[in-house]
Amino acid sequence: MVTSASKPLLVVEDLGVGIRTARGTFQAIEEVGFALDEGEVLGLVGESGCGKSITALAIMGLLPQPVARITGGHVWFDGTDLAALSNEQMRHVRGDRLGMIFQEPMTSLNPVYRVGDQLVEALREHRPLGRGEAWREAVAMLDMVGIPAARDRASTYPHELSGGMRQRVMIAMALICRPRLLIADEPTTALDVSTQAQILDLLLSLKRELGMAIMMITHDLGVVAEVADRVAVMYAGRIVETADVFELFRSPRHPYTDALLRSIPRLDSDLDRLVAIEGTVASPLARPSGCSFRDRCPRARSRCADAVPPLDPLAPGHRARCFFPVEPGARAVEPA
Amino acid sequence: MGIYVLKRLLGAIPTLVIASLLVFAFIHLIPGDPASVMLGDMAEAEEIEALRRELGLDRPIWEQYLVWVSHVAQGDLGTSVYFQEPVLRVIGEGAETSAFLALFTMILVIAIGIPAGIVAASFHGTHVDQTLSGLTMLFASIPTFWLGLYLIFTVAVSLDLLPTSGFPSVLESGELSNLRYLILPAITLSAPNSALVIRLVRAGMLDVMREDYVRTARAKGIAEHAVILRHVFRNALIGVVATLGFTFVGLVSEAVVTETVFALPGIGRLVVQSILRRDYPVIQGIILVIILFYIVVNLVVDIVTTYLDPRVKLQ
Amino acid sequence: MSAVLEFLAPFATRKVAAFGLAFLVVVLVAALLAPWIVPYDPQQIDAIARLSPPNAAHWFGTDHAGRDLFSRVIYGARMALLTGAGVVVIALVFGVLLGTLSAYFPTLGMVLMRVVDVLMGIPALLLALALVVILGKGLFNSMIAVGAIYITTTARITYGLTRKITAETYIEAVTSLGAGHWRIIRRHVLPNLVSPLMVQATFIFAFAQLSAASLDFLGLGLPPDVPSWGNMIAETRRYITRAPGLLMFPGAAIILTVFSLNLVGDVLRDRLDPRFKDDLAKW
Predict the structure, then answer these.
(1) Structure letter (DSSP) for residue A238
(2) Strand, coil or helix: what is A13?
(3) Helical ranges in chain A per DSSP H
(4) What angle do CA A95, A98, A101 make, to 5 degrees?
(5) Which residue of B has its CA nearest to A101?
(6) Which residue on chain C is closest to B259 by alpha carbon?
(7) pTM
(8) SS3 for A181?
(9) Of B215, B222, B231, the CB nearest to A125
(10) Most buried pick, B17, C140, C180, C216, via CB within 10 A?
């Protein structure tokens, strides 16, 4: 439960990232802003290509440099603007106070080093520990993430482990220095359903145990409903809605969020066909003027083409980027 | 590990069989009857006939093949027409020169090629990379024989710094300074090979850089140079070893020309001379030896790869 | 016309490669128009003017027999073009044949590819020399000897690609609709081979120059008086100090031609090989 006295750990302000391609430069994300409190789980939701991964990489300073760069904005983390740091300064934060895990556990671990060694490398980069001590820490961490026979497992190579195991190793590696914030980019998408549930449970229990915040990036609203305290919805490179998770499911204000929730099929409904959102996401090189969702929005009017709507607060803790937001309480969906 | 080596050796048998068939076919594809070829133009008909019977050339071909294989297995590769000595001995005499040259060249290739390849990959997309790639391509376009002559002309003749031909034995004389005869040839031979190694190291590194685990390493806060060496290069090394093995075997090819230009008494020059002298047993012998060499190098590369890549199952 | 423009487009941004292409055009023109543009008969001996340095009468100077070097270098372009084209044709025709057949008849294919592997293990020049021993010297035999080196690589590439293509499910679909082997090869396999083979051809053409010149240099390729660049360099060994031009001009010709071919081949490969396109899907 998040109290109103919680301190903001991460404040992203007006963040923009530009990408250079053979066909021209475009803004992958624009005016992205949200806040994350200590110990909170923020769900960053959106479909593929909406810019959520780029936002995460920008925060971590992992944008592939020549091709993509931060074009503006701030990333306030514990009093420092990460966006203004050099790579050398940033790498002392990465892996230490800020951790990240990725989507593809099968390919995210170096195949030629033992699992334990890779954890030790992460630890000794930021802490002055000897080999033996670091190895013991690594084993303890593997144990904490639920890997059985951790001491033996630490001497194995990644290819000897299953996908779920590898993801646990990734988590152990990201958390070994006890970061304040863990960014999880679709950590369960590549796993089967039962492993998914296990990993999510693991993340929540680690959050409690280590007192850290999590930024959970996903396109799966089910995951959001399960783990998030607050949600930020992204579309076409912008944040279009932020709210408390219950509030979002009960009363979405942005037409996109509303449409997303409507498209989730329910066992107890009487539908002949599945509901889908009309149209497709515009290519980043050819976004419509004004609100990028207007081509697919049933509520669009001429004003929507004139300017990009600002992300305005519509209720305490609830903002939406729309000139004609959906009426409050219009939904009847309860989150799980 | 022993089982692995055994398995690989067994796997090499079909290759050996094919190789032996190819070499045997080569002998019989050479125009002219082997006996008259061996005896030369001046031989009498009876002499040729006698040699034919002696060599078993009147037996069916499959029998000839088996006889030949059994000889080879015992180390008898025939007799050189020109030297009137066992082929193996003739080849052996050229071995010292060629081996030193190959070693020298590989040292240069590794010392130049690998760092340059790593640098090119690290500065991928920048002017450094483009310039390096351009230079590499240029060096790959220079014919070895031209480079040898050019070096002789500039370094040896004009500046008179290094010897330009011949190679007095090191092993016999114990004179290490004789190795300086191999400096120019090694430089000549290393130019196109370094170019190839640079390209392949660079390509291998770039492939690895795209892998997810490199991103993970950066996410851990590892310094860039450590990422390049410990994560990228260490994985690219697997492919690099294969490249080096392949380069080592290929040296023989270019060595033919280099040894000719620098008048080095090695196996390469022996090939050319034997062709001009129609000393076919020697040519066959060299081809066979080269193929065997290729098989051995392959085996070594495989074994080294199992040490480098834990994913390769030893079973 | 648009195809030509599309081909030339990537050269607009790559200046060096553009120069390479221009140089190749020059070589091509020189080769084709040789008999009409040379100031002297390349075989014309002039004992008085032996080994003269570049001057007004002889732009590149003369060789040890007093023959005009410039004319010989121009004729050398002819030989280079001829040899290169011959090698490429031989390599592609037999390589593709071997590759597709091996892919289509799996058991035979496995054996053939093993043989190819062994042949590829023999260093290139050595293989060519072995063939020269069997076939003899001369232009055609040179082409076959050098071509054989590249038949193996082409066969391997074709084999791999054909197997990949025929394993695609759309081939299954087409086969179940009654398409015969030849039809499949003609309509589905060959068109997909064109791009990679074009790239291959460019590089084969480039390295064939080096192999052929090496054969010439060793005296095992073209007959000695034929004005090929390799021959010219071979002839001048004894005279380098007195007339460095004898080494430099034909040498520059070979180097620049091979370099240009490599540059152009690189550009072609970047355009045609989809593996090298930027992977934006990662985002």
Answers:
(1) E
(2) strand
(3) 52-60, 87-93, 115-126, 131-144, 150-153, 163-175, 193-210, 221-227, 245-250, 255-262, 303-306
(4) 70
(5) B216
(6) C218
(7) 0.85
(8) strand
(9) B222
(10) C216
Contact list in B for residue A112 (CB cut-off 8 A) is 234-235, 238, 308-310
Q: Which residue out of C83, C125, C127, C267 would a mutagenesis test of the B interface target, given it has the greatest number of B Cβ atoms within 10 Å?
A: C125
C-alpha A53/C-alpha A184 separation (Å) is 10
Q: At A50, list the tokens.
A: 């909406």
Minimal-distance CA residue of chain C relative to B268: C126
Chains contacting chain B through 3 or more C-beta pairs under 8 A: A, C
Residue type, A217: I
Q: Give me the residues paired with residue C280 across strands.
A: none
Q: In the structure encoding, which two tokens stand for residue B234, read together?
A: 């260490």
Q: Do B218 and A62 touch (CB under 8 A)?
A: yes
The C-alpha atoms of residue B180 and residue B106 are separated, in whole angstroms, by: 16
State how far the alpha carbon of A43 is from the alpha carbons of A203, A228, B118, in Å: 13, 5, 40
User: B299: part of which helix (H) or strand (E)?
Assistant: helix B280-308
Give B 122-141 residues with CB within 8 A of chain C.
134, 137-138, 140-141
Please judge whether B291 and C118 are an interchain contact, meaning their C-beta atoms are less than 8 angstroms apart: yes
pLDDT in tens, C233-272: 988 777 777 778 888 889 999 999 999 999 998 888 887 7
DSSP count for chain A of H helices, then E strands = 11, 12
* Owner of token pair 């060595």: B255
Q: What is the ipTM of this complex?
A: 0.86
HSE of C211, CA atoms in CB hemisphere, 13 A: 29
First to last CA, chain B: 9
**Which of A122, A120, A193, A207 shows the shortest CA–CA distance to A163?**
A193
Collect all residues with Cβ–Cβ distance below 8 Å to B223 and sequence separation of at least 6: A91
Q: Is C19 exposed, middle or buried (0-12, 13-18, 19+ CB in 10 A)?
A: middle
Dihedral sign (CA B4, B6, B11, B16): positive
Contact C278 A49 (CB under 8 A): no
Task: Read off the tokens for C144.
Answer: 């076959």
Residues from chain B that touch A174, judged by Cβ atoms under 8 A, are 219-220
DSSP string, B229-295: IIIIIHHHHHHHHHHHHHHHHHHHHHHHHHHHHTT--SHHHHHHHHHHHT-HHHHHHHHHHHHHHHH
Interval A106-117 mean pLDDT: 93
Structure tokens, A248: 């979002």
Report pLDDT digits (tens) over C15-52.
888 888 999 999 999 888 888 888 888 788 877 777 87
| The dihedral sign for the CA sequence C73, C78, C84, C86 | negative
- Does C214 sit within 8 Å of B144, measured CB to CB? yes
| Cα gap B304→B294, rounded to integer Å | 15
Chain B residue numbers touching A110 (CB-CB < 8 A) = 213, 216-217, 231, 234-235
Query: Exposed, middle or buried by CB within 10 Å (0-12, 13-18, 19+), for A163?
Result: middle
* Residue bearing tokens 């290519």: A283
Strand A8-21: give its sheet, edge to edge.
A24-37, A8-21, A68-77, A80-81
